[in-house]
Amino acid sequence: MLTKRIIPCLDVRDRKVTKGVRFQNNIDLGDPIEMAVAYSDGGCDELVFYDITASAQGRGIDIDMVRDVAKAVHIPFAVGGGISTIEDIRQVLLAGAEKVSVNSLAVRNPDIIAQGAKLFGSQCIVLGMDPVKVEDKGKFPSGYEITTQGFRTRTGMDALEWAKKAEGLGAGEIVVNSVDADGTQEGFEITLTRMIAESVKIPVVASGGGGTCKHLIDVFNNAKADAAIIASMIHTGRFTIRQIKDELIAAGIPIRKKW
């Protein structure tokens, strides 16, 4: 049985890890390299870094930071934000990241997924999506619409159909980052995560809303997620990776123990 993965998320702004609620009211928390080392040493399975202002500011991702992370940790990590071209993907991978997350770029140019998968392998290309719950089931059969640019832009795209299309284009993984749950610590978005997990054959990662170990147990058991991204519950110091994994193991969740 494949083990479930626990992935700390570090949203980075001006070389500081920051966290908000539903993409708003962010506060700075610390140095991304120091936090990455702490979580890696603490037993997490992977890391993900999002340069949350790169796209809005029209600049590329901080390649120096990617290199610094690669030197400091010895676990896989993904990077997103400020990715505009195939060359950007190449540079991020050459700097030491194992995966590149494309979100707004993939909506604007879906072929970037196919190009990236062909050149670097599907395992390197992650589709990040920011869905929001909507009432119009006629236009959005899944009940969720894809948004971009930190929830600032509605796309008119149905979340489930986009997930299926991305898989067909060659994406190796899908991150379902619920706009409604982001930063709330009130639980993951179970309905859409399960819908996508049951409709595609690639790993699906739940993101947004994790606040307790029960939330993680629910998303693994009830939403069939292959991995879960967490942030607030560990950034605040309320939980350590070891505490989380011990509780998941006790609940029968297959988790890789690193101590």
Give a written overview of the molecule.
- There is one protein chain.
- It is built from 10 helices and 12 strands.
- It is an alpha/beta fold.
- Strands 1-4-5-6-7-10-11-12 form an 8-stranded parallel beta barrel, surrounded by 6 helices.
Low-confidence stretches: none
Judging from the principal axes of the Cα atoms, what is the shape?
globular
Q: What kind of sheet is the major sheet?
A: 8 strands, parallel, barrel
The helix fraction, in percent, is 25-40%
At the third CATH level, what is the topology name? TIM Barrel
Report the portion of residues in β strands.
25-35%
Q: SSE layout and pairings?
A:
Layout: E1 5-13, E2 16-21, E3 24-30, H1 32-42, E4 47-51, H2 63-72, E5 77-80, H3 86-94, E6 99-102, H4 104-108, H5 111-120, E7 125-133, E8 144-148, E9 153-158, H6 159-169, E10 173-177, H7 190-197, E11 204-207, H8 213-221, E12 227-230, H9 232-235, H10 241-250
Helix pairs in contact: 1-2
